[in-house]
């Protein structure tokens, strides 16, 4: 065992499909979407969104999820731990609440608006050794995991807590509406009849350490690319996604044919799904199983990379390939989409996160050989 291998030793989540990672995985396998239809966010329009069903403030819920990870791992504290946060919204929701109530900016605290407000809130409670925040749109927490992987491989830190966190923000919802990509129903990634995406909120927390624990999953590699094809659309043939996936595999010399499952970014928009499907077909052919779980969770934006890393970790632990939901007629006929949960032995899973500006990140996860 290499000294600087990186293992995911504990994790927990909360999203519209479940207030724990176990509830989330059960919902995915049972095709129970957490997405609902709501008025009031977009003028004269009903839109499908993923809202967490919990009365606690999102800040308090975030602390509860972090505490669950600490207890799960049996740690007394996080004083020797680096905190890495990925978010695209930061404290924007709180800013909106104040402004919509007061119709004034007077009471808005700029320090509570920025991305770093999440890390500051957690630092006050846990006293981390240090912290850093990433905001790269929909790759935010995937890049947070990537940064954690890199500093641990280099031996800079022995333990890192990665947090993906985004809340529902009117600014974000209206922004995607302006782009014409919001769906009025739960999204249908990769389907010919897809209408668009569902903006959602989510919390995902993963603890990374050098020493493996029983049943843990290894973070085997991280791949990045920046194709800069367009400000808001991916390259039609997925060149950026291909490069990111290739770079993730190259971290430990894993061949494409060794990857059994790909958790696709799969947002349900016309441009993303077509591009990503082309990329997967070009690099892998029809060999790996492919699904998008966003028809259950919605698109949790900056939290999606960490949330879907947890889904992949659970899939590897349980040896169950998670299915897509609401996929009836795939636009790409070459890929091996999964329609029902599939129990089978497999070692490697890839999780894709693709963001505005051609900012792409792929995470490679694996399980250890028996014995």
How would you portray this structure in words?
The chain has 371 residues and is of the alpha/beta class. It has one domain (7-366): 3-Layer(aba) Sandwich (Peroxisomal Thiolase, Chain A, domain 1), CATH 3.40.47.10. The chain contains 10 helices and 15 strands. An 11-stranded mixed beta sheet has the order 5-4-6-7-1-8-15-14-9-10-12, sandwiched between helices. It has a two-stranded antiparallel sheet with strand order 2-3. α1 crosses α10, α5 packs across α10 (304-318) and α7 crosses α8 (270-284). The longest helix is centred in the N-terminal third of the chain and has 16 residues, at 58-73. The relative contact order is 0.19. InterPro entries: Beta-ketoacyl_synthase (IPR000794), Ketoacyl_synth_C (IPR014031), Ketoacyl_synth_N (IPR014030), PKS_Beta-ketoAc_synthase_dom (IPR020841), Thiolase-like (IPR016039).
What is the topology?
Layout: E1 7-15, H1 21-29, E2 36-42, E3 45-49, H2 58-73, E4 82-86, H3 92-102, H4 117-126, E5 130-134, H5 140-153, E6 159-166, H6 170-178, E7 202-209, E8 217-226, H7 239-250, E9 261-263, H8 270-284, E10 289-291, H9 294-297, H10 304-318, E11 320-321, E12 336-337, E13 342-343, E14 348-355, E15 359-366
Parallel strand pairs: 4-5, 4-6, 9-10, 9-14, 10-12
Antiparallel strand pairs: 1-7, 1-8, 2-3, 6-7, 8-15, 11-13, 14-15
Helix pairs in contact: 1-10, 5-10, 7-8
